[in-house]
Amino acid sequence: MSRSKIARVMIYFSEKEYAALKKFAKKSDKPMTQVIREGLEIRMSDQMDPYSTGLKEGLNKAMEIAQTAKGGQMKFPSGKSFGQMVSEEIEAYADERLREIKQ
Fold first, then answer.
1. What are the pLDDT digits (tens) for 43-89?
2. Which is nearest to 69 in space by CA: 82, 60, 56, 78?
3. 97 near 55, Cβ under 8 Å?
4. Which residues contact 78 (CB under 8 A, 6 or more apart)?
5. What number of H helices and E strands is found in the chain?
6. Class of residue 12 by CB neighbours under 10 A (exposed 0-12, middle 13-18, buried 19+)
7. First vs last C-alpha separation in the chain
């Protein structure tokens, strides 16, 4: 890849995400930048396998239901609704599960 044909991008990761990326790249024997590019390419081209796609769709629907249900509208002192809090937990689970599937 020639330098004249690339665009530089800065990405921020949590320490946990960075450690996981570094571990995955080492395990895959690839540079972290290549792992990131491959991940973006797969994500943008919707080349996820049917299981992962179905899992993601199902969890997205669950998050939608949690946020739109009457009980999901209840707000906590933090300002977040119950639906938002449940959705964050579902999203974290989905991300973790999809990472496990890819390994």
1. 777 566 777 778 888 888 888 888 888 888 899 898 889 988 998 89
2. 82
3. yes
4. none
5. 4, 0
6. exposed
7. 27
Q: Cβ(70)–Cβ(38) under 8 Å?
A: no
Output the CA torsion sign for 25, 28, 34, 35.
negative
Residue-wise DSSP of 76-93:
PTTS-BHHHHHHHHHHHH
* Distance of alpha carbon 96 from alpha carbon 79, whole angstroms: 26
Query: What gap in Å lies between CA 15 and CA 21, rounded to an integer?
Result: 10
Structure tokens at 100: 């496990």
To 10 degrees, what angle do helices 32-45 and 15-28 make? Answer: 100
